[in-house]
């Protein structure tokens, strides 16, 4: 990812405009079990000598086939890209066991982001620290021995010093070429399964705009390819990965990179972009709480552009990072889980149909590395299934039952994605078609009798979970949730510490609006009343409060502000703030 949010999620990439079945910890599923679950086991491990030189299994002949064999890929994020060292950003030291686990879970490639800026000496030779280089080589060799395709790069160097290229051309180019000369020499005789990526998310300071910055990327990519090719050995035909400016999927950025490919006329080049989804949805701002048409069209548009610009011309594409910007296990609830699953399913499907290889950005939020387990088994299962088939979804994965009202029937719209509906189950028990539920077209209705049984004693929160099963793919789980309208209390505080006492009563927060008395948006991002989840506000369900962050108040004028809290049940609760300097008073409606 890029400079912003680099440590936490690796922006946890800059964004233009603004993915196991766990048998037991450490166990490896048999290949047959993987195949039955729709996993791609991939080719067998390379036979690699201790020095990492080529004794590799036969590779597919064309670059397109070689990149296709990398699908799916996984990023060893916030590790060797961390500053200053491998464990600085909270991940444990990388082990052969980790790489074996990743391979056993169906991943065929690994991207190892590496930041070099703190691990080399001064000009003019910029000698790489031997201990650091040996450690990178060790992990590369372990990965190759597991049969993984491997990609290494210059990572946060992009914003630490490469970004000054427009104004310090000679200095930056010398440093850049000296680093790549040393890396190319070190890995010259390594397996063809090792790829080099020139720069992660190139970005520049002091240019007149994107057109000039495109030219900077062009110059650095040219220098990289020509330098690596001149070192011979496997580097003469090694797959080299070239990014767009910011690794953006915008058409103008792809066109600029295509010009570079045309000038180089080298068949062993790969284009790379990053994809973190439609920004309002990816961070939950501006009311972007749901996987809607905007999110879908952003996937389609980006992937179609990548296909038409590169793949249709025989140029392979690697989406070197993908996820959602705000998906972070330390900050749960920013994106509702069902909406998250819809996004992951769609990305897997649309990438597959457009022959794009994807590499999941994982800085620790998907795979819990210390004990080798997926933090959310359902997400992994859905991602694995998306490699070979679609999974159906629904308009929501929640059905809310208000405790203050009689229980009635509830409906959801099914998104079949070309699959056949096979029924509803609660655990191993099938629900009865016609008595517990009815399907008419795409509408699924759970009867009032079924809802009463499922809600049980109607304690606040999740009372039961049922799943809709289809002809293929992962079942869609539906939670039955009992709630009452959340209540809030008056309070006082300051712009540096303000918490609204909130009894959530089984409900959960979706988003928050902030407006002045005249109806204009209050606070940051004043082009929308809907503020950014977690950055500007944060629910703490255990403590029974909603926190308003200093970042929110930093851009709030003195006077009255009306907050509207939107909950996933559809309930809205209004709260009034009065700000005077650093003092804040809050009152419930």
UniProtKB/TrEMBL annotation:
An example Gene Ontology biological process: cellulose catabolic process
Keyword Signal attached: yes
GO CC list: cell surface; extracellular region
Domain named Carbohydrate binding X2: residues: 404-480
Identification of the protein by name: Endoglucanase
DNA repair recorded as keyword: no
Residues covered by the Endoglucanase B carbohydrate binding domain: 484-586
Family as reported in the entry's similarity comment: Belongs to the glycosyl hydrolase 5 (cellulase A) family.
Pfam families: CBM46, CBM_X2, Cellulase
GO MF terms held by the record: beta-glucosidase activity
Record's signal peptide: 1-30
Residue ranges of domain Glycoside hydrolase family in the record: 86-364
């Amino acid at each position: 990812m890029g400079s912003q949010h680099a440590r936490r999620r690796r922006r946890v990439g800059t964004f233009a405009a603004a993915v196991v079945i766990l048998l037991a910890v450490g166990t490896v599923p048999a290949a047959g079990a993987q195949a039955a679950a729709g996993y791609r086991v991939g080719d067998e491990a390379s036979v690699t000598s201790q020095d990492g030189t080529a004794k590799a299994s036969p590779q597919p002949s064309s670059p397109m086939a070689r990149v296709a064999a990398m699908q799916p890929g996984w990023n060893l994020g916030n590790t060797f890209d961390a500053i200053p060292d491998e464990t600085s950003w909270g991940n444990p030291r990388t082990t052969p066991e980790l790489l074996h686990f990743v391979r056993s879970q169906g991943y065929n490639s690994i991207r190892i982001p590496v930041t070099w800026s703190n691990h080399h000496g001064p000009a003019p030779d910029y000698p790489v620290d031997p201990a650091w280089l040996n450690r990178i080589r060790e992990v590369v060799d372990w990965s190759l021995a597991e049969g993984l395709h491997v990609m290494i790069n210059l990572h946060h160097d992009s914003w630490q010093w490469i970004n000054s290229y427009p104004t310090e051309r000679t200095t930056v180019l010398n440093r850049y070429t000296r680093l790549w000369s040393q890396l190319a020499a070190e890995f010259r005789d390594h397996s063809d399964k090792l790829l080099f990526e020139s720069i992660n998310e190139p970005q520049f300071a002091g240019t007149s705009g994107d057109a000039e910055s495109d030219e900077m990327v062009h110059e650095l990519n040219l220098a990289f390819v020509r330098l690596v090719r001149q070192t011979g050995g496997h580097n003469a035909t090694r797959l080299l990965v070239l990014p767009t400016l910011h690794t953006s999927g915008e058409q103008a950025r792809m066109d600029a990179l295509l010009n570079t490919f045309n000038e180089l006329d080298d068949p062993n080049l790969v284009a790379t972009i990053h994809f973190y989804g439609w920004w309002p949805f990816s961070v939950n701002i501006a009311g972007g709480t749901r996987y809607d048409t905007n999110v879908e069209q952003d996937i389609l548009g980006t992937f179609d552009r990548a296909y038409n610009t590169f793949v249709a011309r025989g140029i392979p594409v690697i989406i070197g990072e993908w996820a959602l910007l705000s998906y972070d296990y330390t900050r749960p609830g920013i994106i509702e889980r069902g909406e998250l699953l819809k996004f992951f399913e769609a990305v897997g499907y649309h990438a597959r149909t457009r022959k794009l290889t994807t590499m999941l950005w994982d800085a620790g939020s998907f795979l819990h590395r210390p004990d080798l387990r997926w933090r959310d088994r359902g997400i992994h299962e859905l991602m694995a299934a998306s490699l070979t088939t679609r999974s159906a979804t629904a308009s929501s994965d929640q059905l809310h039952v208000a405790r203050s009202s009689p229980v009635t029937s509830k409906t959801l719209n099914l998104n079949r994605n070309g699959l056949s509906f096979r029924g509803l189950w609660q655990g191993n028990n099938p629900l009865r078609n016609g008595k517990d539920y009815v399907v008419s077209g795409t509408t699924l209705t759970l009867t009032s009798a079924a809802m009463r049984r499922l809600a049980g004693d109607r304690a606040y929160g999740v009372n039961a979970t049922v799943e809709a099963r289809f002809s293929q793919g992962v079942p869609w789980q539906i939670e039955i949730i009992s709630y009452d309208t959340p209540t809030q209390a008056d309070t006082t505080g300051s712009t540096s510490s303000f918490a609204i006492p909130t009894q959530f009563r089984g409900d959960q927060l979706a988003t928050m609006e902030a407006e002045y008395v005249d109806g204009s948006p209050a606070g940051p991002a004043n082009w929308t009343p809907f503020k950014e989840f977690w950055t500007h506000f944060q629910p703490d369900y255990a403590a029974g409060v909603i926190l308003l962050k200093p970042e929110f108040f930093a851009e709030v004028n003195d006077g009255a502000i009306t907050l509207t809290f939107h909950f996933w049940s559809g309930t809205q609760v209004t709260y009034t703030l009065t700000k005077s300097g650093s003092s804040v008073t809050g009152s419930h409606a």
